[in-house]
């Protein structure tokens, strides 16, 4: 009788487990990876400086003046500064371009240069934070965000090359006859000037 009772209890437990359906397994889903498209929104001509007509998402830009005589500028310091090209572009902005640079009219000046520290010391020079004035009466600061890294700290014998860009605000590129560039003197780690400031004019 006792064995019959135990058998009945075991059968009841098995029946309950069967009715409950056991342990439910949750299916794990892999997270869906969203692909992000990085759009080129640089509102200035690209680095193919030989092209006089260039198109970007921000608009169409046409070179109207070019100074192509490579010019070495004496900084009276270990830095060798070479201006390779100065171009004035007339631009027709797209709607995207107008949103990106609402303060500009689409015209710009682009200066191609190389900067080299010929010493073993860590020295600083900032041609990418320069100023220009033009024959049309504008004074413009360089657009660091749209320019290449051709300045900063040079740790020993380092050479940097690229373009520095200036967006015209109130005058037209086609009216420019000359561009004057001004760059602060280089300095050492103690912030002492080690040369002279740059002040040079390029005539188209």
Task: Describe the structure in your own words.
InterPro entries: Immunoprotect_excell_Ig-like. Keywords: Signal. The termini are far apart. Helix content is 12%, strand content 38%. Strands 1, 2, 3, 4, 5 and 10 form a 6-stranded antiparallel beta sheet that branches. Strands 8-7-11-12 form a 4-stranded antiparallel beta sheet, with no helix packed on it. The chain has one domain (53-203): Immunoglobulin-like. The chain has helices at 2-20, 95-100, and strands spanning 53-56, 59-67, 71-74, 79-93, 108-117, 122-125, 131-134, 139-141, 152-155, 159-167, 178-183, 198-203. It is mostly beta strands and 204 residues long. A hairpin with a 4-residue loop joins strand 3 (71-74) and strand 4.
Brief descriptors of the model:
single chain, 204 residues, mainly beta, Immunoglobulin-like, four-stranded antiparallel beta sheet, 2 helices, elongated, DUF4352 domain-containing protein, Immunoprotect_excell_Ig-like, signal
Structure at a glance:
The chain is mainly β and 204 residues long. It has two helices and twelve strands.
Question: What are the low-pLDDT stretches, counting only 5+ consecutive residues below 50?
Answer: 1-41
User: Based on DSSP secondary structure assignment, what is the total number of beta strands?
Assistant: 12
Which CATH class applies here?
Mainly Beta
Structural shape: elongated
How many helices in DSSP terms? 2
């Amino acid at each position: 009788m006792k064995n019959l009772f135990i058998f009945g209890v075991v059968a009841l437990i098995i029946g309950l487990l069967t009715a409950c359906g056991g342990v439910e397994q949750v299916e794990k889903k892999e997270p869906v990876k969203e692909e992000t498209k990085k759009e080129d929104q640089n509102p200035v001509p690209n680095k193919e400086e030989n092209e006089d007509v260039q198109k970007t998402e921000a608009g169409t830009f046409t070179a109207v003046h070019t100074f192509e005589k490579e010019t070495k500028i004496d900084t009276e310091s270990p830095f060798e500064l070479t201006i390779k090209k100065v171009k004035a572009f007339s631009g027709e902005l797209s709607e995207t371009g107008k949103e990106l640079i609402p303060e500009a009219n689409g015209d710009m000046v682009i200066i191609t240069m190389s900067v080299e520290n010929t010493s073993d010391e860590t020295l600083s020079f900032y041609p990418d934070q320069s100023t220009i004035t033009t024959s049309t009466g504008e004074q413009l600061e360089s657009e660091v965000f749209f320019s290449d890294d051709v300045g900063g700290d040079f740790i020993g014998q380092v050479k940097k090359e690229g373009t520095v860009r200036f967006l015209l605000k109130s005058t037209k590129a086609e009216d420019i006859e000359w561009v004057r560039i001004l760059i602060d003197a280089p300095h050492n780690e103690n912030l002492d000037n080690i040369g002279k400031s740059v002040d040079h004019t390029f005539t188209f």
